[in-house]
Design a protein that fits this description.
about 220 residues, alpha/beta, Rossmann fold, 2 domains, 6-stranded parallel sheet, 9 helices, 6 strands, about 45% helix
Length: about 220
């Protein structure tokens, strides 16, 4: 049974809906925030597959420019800065702290693994008041191979001093779950609204609507 739970950060722990007012102000629709993040992930996957590395922040800025061009919106420097800086001050989903405290109280080790740079991730977790919950806060930027590339998960295992099979990746993204499972890790899917698993990928043994449900299932497996 995996003894280390490694958490994705954006959307899994932190609520990107906090950016909706800023996107509404600039684009007239809150839904553009999801369009932007989807483009960001697509661009990150292209960069990873083609071997042309860029940081997640650089990819986010490029994705924002693409969405603006697609919609015929001219972004001012202030608007661009406001939208991108908002990623550093996201709130946690309301159940996160209580759920993770319960998990940690059982003796399980907790860490994070994000595509954001370490500097951005530290700022995010500090603002959300979650830093103290995690033994390590890891970034795929360290190996310049963004998730779901296997190098990111293997790096996390190495830094934690365990085998990939001793890690359970907890995420709200199907692509992250697929990457972790195919790298030899276990996984747990947080099925937040609008998030579904990829039917072509392996299925994790833990699936829950929020972090409370995911933690309950992890603890049930631990007791078994």
């Amino acid at each position: 049974m995996p003894r280390v739970c490694v958490f994705d950060v954006n959307e899994t722990l932190l609520d990107l809906r906090a950016l909706d007012p800023a996107f509404t102000q600039v684009f007239g629709e809150a839904s553009v925030r999801r369009e932007w993040f989807t483009q960001m992930i697509q661009s990150a996957l292209v960069a990873t597959v083609t071997g042309e590395y860029a940081t997640f922040g650089q990819i986010g800025a490029a994705a924002l420019a693409m969405v603006a061009a697609r919609r015929g919106v001219t972004l001012s420097d202030d608007a661009r800065t406001q939208l991108l800086r908002g990623m550093r001050s996201l709130p946690p989903h309301p159940e996160i702290r209580a759920a993770l405290e319960r998990l940690r109280a059982t003796g399980l080790r907790l860490a994070t693994l994000t595509n954001s740079t370490a500097e951005v991730a530290e700022a995010q977790l500090a603002h959300a008041g979650l830093t103290d919950l995690f033994e390590l806060r890891l970034s795929a930027d360290t190996v310049q191979r963004l998730k779901p590339a296997p190098e990111a998960y293997r790096m996390a295992a190495e830094r934690l001093g365990v085998a990939p099979g001793d890690i359970r990746l907890v995420a709200a993204h199907a692509w992250d779950i697929a990457g972790a499972l195919r790298a030899g890790c276990a996984a747990a899917f947080v099925a937040r609204p609008g998030m579904v698993l990829d039917p072509l990928a392996p299925v994790p043994d833990v699936v829950g609507d929020d972090m409370h449900a995911v933690v309950e299932q992890i603890l049930t497996l631990e007791r078994a």
